Amino acid sequence: MSICCGRPQTVCNYIARVKVIGNGDDDQAKQLLAVSEAIDKIGMAIELDSISDMEKLKYYGGTKTPAIVIGSKLVSEGKLIDSEEAEKLIRKAVFGI
After folding, report:
1. What is the pLDDT of residues 7-58, one digit of tens each?
2. CA distance linking residue 64 with residue 21, whole number of Å
3. CA-to-CA distance for 62 and 79, rounded, in angstroms?
């Protein structure tokens, strides 16, 4: 699943890529929703991927789900965060604020 800024992906130039990694359970779905809401609040072209592959999580150095990766950096793992916290993490990782 990929979400952008509402435009066709062929038109959109993403400024960042966020991955929610889990094992396909309810927690992953909840985390995906919170991150999606955060991206909507930011209002920029940020790609969102949902990954159910524990090997990918290990690749980023994580061991617990749900996990959030922004760019290539693991920024959260093993807990659900709300959309406000997700927005803060994205803003810090992408814009440095």
Report:
1. 444 445 668 899 999 999 999 999 999 999 999 999 888 999 999 999 999 9
2. 9
3. 12
Helix (H, G, I), strand (E, B) or coil at 77: strand
pTM check: above 0.70? yes
DSSP 80: -
Report, in angstroms and rounded to the nearest whole number, the Rg of the chain calculated over CA atoms. 12
DSSP track, 6-75: SS-TTT---SEEEEEE-SSSHHHHHHHHHHHHHHHHHTS-EEEEEE--HHHHHHTT--SSSEEEETTEEE
CA distances from 96 to 2, 88, 91 (A): 24, 10, 6
Q: Which residues touch 58 (CB under 8 Å, ≥6 apart)?
A: none
